[in-house]
Amino acid sequence: MRSKFTVTGIVQGVGFRPFVYRIALENNLRGYVKNMGDGSVEIEVEGLKEDIERFVLKLFSEKPPLAKIEEVKRIDFDDELKYESFKVLKSDFEERASASLIPPDIGICEDCSRELFDPKSRRYRYHFITCTNCGPRFTIIERYPYDRFNTSMVDFPMCSMCAEEYYNPRDRRFHAETIACASCGPRLMLFDGNGSKVNGDPIKLAAKFLDEGNILAIKGVGGFHIALSAYNDDAILKIRRWKGREQKPFALMAKDVETVKTFAYVDEVEEKILSSPSKPIVLLDLKEGSCISKYVSPGLHNVGVMLPYTGLHLLIFSESKTDVLIMTSGNLPSEPIIIDEKEAMKSFSQIVDYYLIHDRRILYRCDDSVVRKVDGKTCFLRRSRGFVPEPLYVKGVVDALGVGGEENVTGCVVSSGKMYLTQYIGDVENIETLEYLKSALKRMVNLTACKPKAVAHDLHPTFNTTVYAKELSTQQGIPSFPVQHHHAHIASVMAEHGLEETVGIAADGFGYGLDGNAWGGEILYCEKGRFERVGHLEEQPYLGGDLAAKYPARMVLSILYKTPYLDRWLISNIQKFPHGSREVDFLNLQLESRNYILTSSFGRILDAVSTILDVCYVRTYEGEPALKLESLAKKAVGHYRIEPTIEDGVLLTTPIIENVIEDLEKFPAAELAYAVEECLAEGMAKIAVEKAKEFGVKAISFSGGVAYNEHISKAIRRVVESNNIKLYRNVYAPAGDGCVSLGQAYLAGKYFLG
Ligand code: ZN
Ligand code: ZN
Ligand code: FE
Q1: What pLDDT, in 10s, does the model give residues 689-703?
Q2: How many CB atoms neighbour CB 594 within 10 A?
Q3: 594 partner at 20 to 30 Å CA-CA among 144, 283, 459, 752?
Q4: What's the gap in Å between 185 CA and the centre of ligand 2?
């Protein structure tokens, strides 16, 4: 008998054909396997029926680790064509690659790690060792098809030994486009701070320099890292001064899981994601009294940690006495990560002592991904290296684009029923990051053969992304649609879970509201492409917009305005206003004359409490006061409670703040912090449940930066589930503003074109 299969999914560039070859031979089958131009793989086998069935079982159960099978179409024939053997046929690349999926960059696999330290291996201590199961992909591919000549490996012609492996279907490196060895592949070089080459073994020297307390710039997979010992207070403070980064935590890279466990708690789920092929940064709770510098993540209970993900990283740790390094993105403040050595040497000249670089071009930059376990589930803070460009499958969407908001931006491309989020871009406030967004979107459009019929953007009229979307609309002659920020948040959850109708809780710092006010604690009823604001946090005066975000004391003042609590608080807290009583007088005047916009921001309430409890009163990075408040609340037992007050779908925040001031001396700060989080979560969840019942909806969605807060997420789920309603959260996209483009593109592709 004879059977023909068409396999779609991530099946190219992941060692699928050698795998098929192997299981075909094992089962005495003849025929062929072939990569198709649309990204699928075609297989034809003939032989005994039971052998074919065993082959099919293995196709699913033993597939290579990086392969993802989306669909297998099978046609059976009674006849046989009398193939002589089983062959891997030449790729068929005539069609346009519309269904193709290139794999993300993958951390070094176990086989390669073993060979790296095996003196008998041909690639012993070769820093760029890879195989079909591992190595860079997304960052080095210029265009389809995924073949060596379309990647930056084109600069390195294979030596005869590599070529032999490359063309041998029985070899693990059969058609591994990144195949290389010490004699033919990319090389490492070490330069000092003045740009002069340092002679000697670059890895041994780099390790020694790190041990001696130097700061190194290391060229990696998706860009440069700035690396230094995580134990060295002086060097860390030096970096903080240079980056203008007083408090924001740095990510770490630790030698192995055992090392991570010396300074952080790692449970089973976290260990699995930490060592997964994507090798993301995982936020872990710090152990008390650990040896790493207190300047790594000041004021926080957790720290971001990743494991080595290239041969180069492993070799550095094998030579170095330092088992934990800070590995922070090599970029200038609010600019994209640097991928080019000349630019690196220019930009880092004031701070970096040595540069460890290689001569393979990084074609597309990609930051490290960041994840955190929240309420038992892994969620993305940043979805980038190791995950992009894996798509989200949705139904009934036409090709469209979403350009995101302003902070933590990603772009989104809908193409042939799949949604692709770009890598993390950053805050699109300047030309550099805007250009990065443009190029990342353009590339994704090309890779996915997207033919957009619409582009969606934020409702904010002056965001750079809004202006960009309108340009795209004119250039391409397609309509552009504005999407309210929190609607986009909830729509992203609807896209991920296929919800047609939901009540959404969108909780974050800021989003431009329909009324021009600063929304941020919203309950939205969403049905298909439309939404209705059915509840929110009490609106408070937002004095000076961004200034109130930077100095949360301004929020305390506007919340307590005209209450007896204000003077009581001001008396000992005037120093929390940078200009003291002069500023307070001025703000009082503004309040008097009603010269302000309003905000229902969830984040700003957490900030206000953080300030009252002396946790943080100047925000130096996004979310700082709320994150530090969360760290404090973790220490609570939970015996103090604040009851939520709800009026007509509005959760009042003034009584919460009054409560805190009232009981400031009576209870430990941690208890107050915990009670505020609990009260806000419960209040919002209660409104959402009430509205869900009103509308007869069985699904509540939760999105926004607040969804990273473990305690708040748990409390919301408790209330929702105790009412027999299901709670949905972002799984594919970050719950913060990284999901905004996804929500936008989904609404545009599914509903707005009618
Ligand atoms: Zn490998
Ligand atoms: Zn070679
Ligand atoms: Fe948001």
Answers
A1: 999 999 999 999 999
A2: 7
A3: 459
A4: 6
